[in-house]
Amino acid sequence: MSIINAQNRKIEGYVLNNQTNSPIENVNIFITNEAIGTSSKSNGYFSLEKIPDSDFELSFSIIGFQDTSVFIASKDNQINIGRFYLELSILDFEEINVAAHPELGYTESLSNISLSGSEIQEKMKSTLAASLSNETGIAITSMGQATARPILRGYGGDRFLLTDGGLELGDLSQTSGDHAVSMDMSSAQSVNIIRGAKALIYGTNTIAGVIDIKKNALPELQFTRQHFHGVLGGADGDNSSFVNTVYHYPFKNNQITVSALLRNTGEQITPIGTLKNTSSINNGFYAGIANYHEDVRTAISVESLTMDYGIPGSPEGHINGVDIEMEKITQKFEHHRDIAFLPNFKTFDIEQRFVKYEHQEYETKKTFAAVDLGQQILSIQGKLTGEDRALGSLIQYRKFVAGGFYWTPDTDEINISIFGFREKEFNFITMQASTRLEFLTIKPETATLSSVNINQDQIKERNFYYGSYALSFFKNWQNWKMSSSFMLLQRAPGIEDMFSDGPHLGSYSYEIGEPTLDLELTQGMEISISYQKNKFESTLTSYSNYSPNFHLSSKIGDGYVPGSDWIEWGSGSSGWLYKYKMRGLKTRIYGVEFDMSYKADFATISADYSSVFGDNISDGIPLPYIPPSKTRIKLTYNKMKNFTPTLQIIKASPQSRLGEFEQPTDGYTLVDIYGSYDLNLGNGSHKIIFQFDNIYDEVHYNHLSKIKLIMPEMGRSISVQYRFLF
Q1: Can you tell me whether residue 137 is helix, strand or coil?
Q2: DSSP state of 105
Q3: DSSP class of 23
Q4: Sign of CA dihedral 117, 123, 129, 134
Q5: Contact, 463 vs 438, CB < 8 A?
Q6: C-alpha dihedral over 212, 214, 218, 219, to 10 degrees?
Q7: Which residue has the higher pLDDT, 217 or 507?
Q8: Residues 503, 508, 509, CA angle at the centre, nearest 5°?
């Protein structure tokens, strides 16, 4: 078939209820493994154009009906399947959050990672980082289990975005290692890591990607009846228990969603003993109401999360540890509308969000907060979306306040962003282009300055004008696929980067900013090649990112030397803390990722490998805080209908390529088993999920953990979850 005929190829038909013979509206209809989809009209009709010139699988999905697929082997240019019937089913876990507009999905980079349904459920831990830690190219940094934060391709902090439904979480987890990510994974329905040109829709600092989390919130489509679902479970590796329940109540054109969570985690248990002061308590509540009409959805919600957690003690900081209390309240207003008055756009969305975040740090067993941090964020984003384009803007105001023994000035921050995305298909290739332009003004309060280590004359208002640009290319031929991206990104320094002057008790550090920091520029390139035939699939990715002024907070000196200028004397329970100073370096971060899988009749065998390297070109030494190479092998047995166990082996290499003042870390091998069992109880959906981690109780150390000189990582642990849905 010629290329021209392939582009004009079309399939159409009608989707009907097999019991009532009535049409079904808003059925998600898409071609499996392709970014081609649509939804059925009120009369059940659908049509898809530009379908593949080869055989393909057509899938149908909607809440309340069984997911169904049909294999299309026709070579005709115009395919009419006539009437296609769907069978009613009990709502399943994977059907809770069905997208209302699957046809608006863009071509995805091959390096993207998507976890949802059973896959995210079987990998779920208490934190996002722990849940993702075994994925390709992802590592974990922590100061105890509560503060775990993901590292993407060697990048941490705010060099990748962490978003909730497309907007940033609004916490301070990116500013210091002792700040926890403000979410509990029992609330997550899916996690997507987005790279390439599409990432600029979310923000400018996306060189490593975007982690977008979708939580148990108001669904895009209204349910036909009330539903109650939840999860409860526990683990013996930290004596933890948790419960999270969600209730959906539809009435007329409205739907109320209410959820609550409680997690109680004990001390982390390692193969050589208990790591003291690592317990935590999470409490959360969510309530929202949505109004649904044929082309319009409006929703308002409020969410509260509190986290009380401990940081273990260290000879370098607070010997008895630090206790941290965090509270975040989030209010959202969302309005979605299908539009027809603009020819190239199909939907308009506006979202208003307000976040109030408070954070106190206490020396253990003391009642006075030594460090008090807080911020309030008000943001409004509007976005137009079409099948091959997006256009939007974001206005955000942030008020940062600091108290206690932390002399960073109170600061007001205003950010204005305009972004655009375009996808274009040519005869031989698909191209994506995106642009994001931003203006940021940072205005510190200078009337009551008390900075100790920063020249107070340099603490003044800063204004930044900058832009980020990206191109992505996609090519499919025979059994091969290729995706590549080229990015030129700029990132403005944050309040903490420039004006920080004070201790972070839990991170055993005294952090000093650099008020004269300029924009951080990064030039990035990525290329991925995938081969798929029959039951075999493999992908190889390489990337390289160069920055002439990489902002890095690094230790000024090392070793306990009385009178030295790299120690802040008088801070910490032991009377001193190491100083960390922000500076700009010329750097390069590069790496490779590889994965392969084979689906046999009885099992799926897969393996992946990732390795990342960082160079401090300015000083001619390796960059610090780079994770070691990692290999993973998995064997998933799929012969039984309701039971899917997986054997997993993780091999981490030693890390001896060290930055300044770093210590080497030995490699390790871990063996895990996890899986799920679906229960047939007649009413609703029920599932048991088990995780048996570190079966051989291996003593192992995480190179990116700040407690590796104190204790190893968690030992053998067995966890069980029970998920239900009515």
Answers
A1: coil
A2: P
A3: B
A4: negative
A5: no
A6: 100
A7: 217
A8: 45
Strands 603-616 vs 621-622: parallel, antiparallel or unpaired: antiparallel
Three-state DSSP state, 369: coil
3-state secondary structure of 60: strand
CA distance 504 to 485: 37
Examine domains 3-89 and 113-725 and report if their fold is the same: no
First to last CA, the chain: 49
Residue 90 has pLDDT above 80, yes or no: no
Amino acid at site 291: N
Neighbouring C-beta atoms of residue 105, cutoff 10 Å: 15
Q: Could you tell me if residue 389 is left (phi over 0), alpha (psi between -120 and 50 degrees) or otherwise beta?
A: beta
Instruction: Give the SS3 label for residue 128.
Output: helix
> What is 113-725's CATH superfamily?
TonB-dependent receptor, beta-barrel domain (2.40.170.20)
Nearest to 67 by CA among 77, 75, 57, 76: 57
Give the model's confidence band at 2: pLDDT under 50 very low, under 70 low, under 90 confident, else very high.
Answer: very low
Asked if residue 52 lies in contact with residue 31, where contact means CB atoms within 8 angstroms, the answer is yes
* Residues ≥6 apart with Cβ < 8 Å to 97: 189, 190, 214, 219, 220
CA distance 123 to 243: 17
Which helix (H) or strand (E) segment holds residue 532: the answer is strand 520-533
Q: Output phi, psi for 7, to 5 deg.
A: -70, -25
Contacts of 671 (CB under 8 A, 6+ apart): 647, 648, 649, 650, 694, 695, 696
Q: Enter the CATH code of domain 3-89.
A: 2.60.40.1120
DSSP string, 572-601: STTSEEEEEEEEEEEEEEEEEEEEEEEE-S
Number of residues written out for the chain: 726
Task: Quote the CA–CA distance of 282 and 89 in Å, as a whole number.
Answer: 35
Residue 138's closest CA among 604, 650, 645?
Answer: 650
Radius of gyration of the chain (CA): 26
Instruction: Annotate 212-278 with three-state secondary structure.
Output: EEEECCCCCCCCCCCEEEEEEEEECCCCEEEEEEEEEEEECCEEEEEEEEEEEECCEEECCEEECCC
Domain ranges (residues) in the chain: 3-89, 113-725
Predicted TM-score (pTM) of the model is: 0.85
Reported as a single tens digit per residue, the pLDDT across 445-487 is: 887 766 667 777 888 899 999 999 999 999 998 889 999 999 9
Provide the β-strand partners of residue 413.
398, 442
Rounded CA-CA distance 349/333 in Å is: 11
Supply 442's token pair: 């940072």
